[in-house]
Amino acid sequence: MRLSRFALQALVTLGLIACQSPTKEPTKPAAAAEAPKPAAAASIFEVIPPKKDSDLRIFYADGKIAKGTPALEKMNSDANLTMWLAGNQFFAMEDVIHTFQKAHPEVGNVAVITLPPGVVQKAIIAGGWNYEGKDYAMQPDIYASVDLKHLTTLKSKGKMDKFMIYTHNALDLMVAKGNPKKIKGIDDLGRDDLKIMLPNPIDEGIMTFYAKKVLQNHKLWDKLSGGKECKACDPTPNVHFTVVHHREIPDGLKAGTVDVGIVWATETKNALEEGHAVETVKLPPEDSLINEVSYAIGTLTAAKHQEAAGKYIGFLQSDNGQGAYAKFGFVTGSKTDLEIKPIP
Fold this sequence. Notes:
33% of the residues lie in helices and 22% in strands.
């Protein structure tokens, strides 16, 4: 089977393939063959992709921040509030949490995991995470997703019963600075001369609930996906589905391996602030879905820190909390949005 360009590049990068020596080693006698090692038992918990330390954090009251494995190991003991949130908020959370801690110093240390909401939902149901080969049994106090359906599933399992909408976003196309391929909108994604990177349709809410619908409306989904739904894969010769999209697309543009990708508007803003040589192709409302994209949040029914969780929800309802998100490009919630309601 011939490997696609995207797949070959990924395998080489990960060190999973290398040049083969033309010299064959002599075959070992059957008696000298090593006994196969027993396979490691699969984890019952949701596996976090490698190198996601910056999505696993504890923000301590004294200003220190623990990341990755050290953060996971201390979440159950050190955190006075734990939140698992849709990953596209990762760049805003340090500022948002510090603003919350200033408003509520009595809460103390806050733990935050920012990963695709479908992955987070699975981890809540499974009861924890596996990272770098180690299991961490834990549950959050608060969960947030870009689609209410994730919360509805958790309600059906007795995990949540109330929610509110706390902010909004919109879809953008991200391209290299200067837009060298002259991309104007969604229809250009049908061009065969473009190298396209898209959020994966397995657990990336941006694709599962929003971008896929837009691509279907433009009759491009079948062409781009080749009828496949996978992640970290190349469904068609010029398309790559991501693992966790919010860093891969700007990194691909920077490396020159990508011409265009679908992202949240807030992610282009963040990429520009980080100095990436990218720019935005703004989409009309029917393609950006600015009037549809909503972030839903709620407290788990069995939350360990119910009082602290209530204070965070109240913070999001305040002008202070709304402003903390708005400075990163998120669209503020309306008075009706910010009312706590039963999960349907």
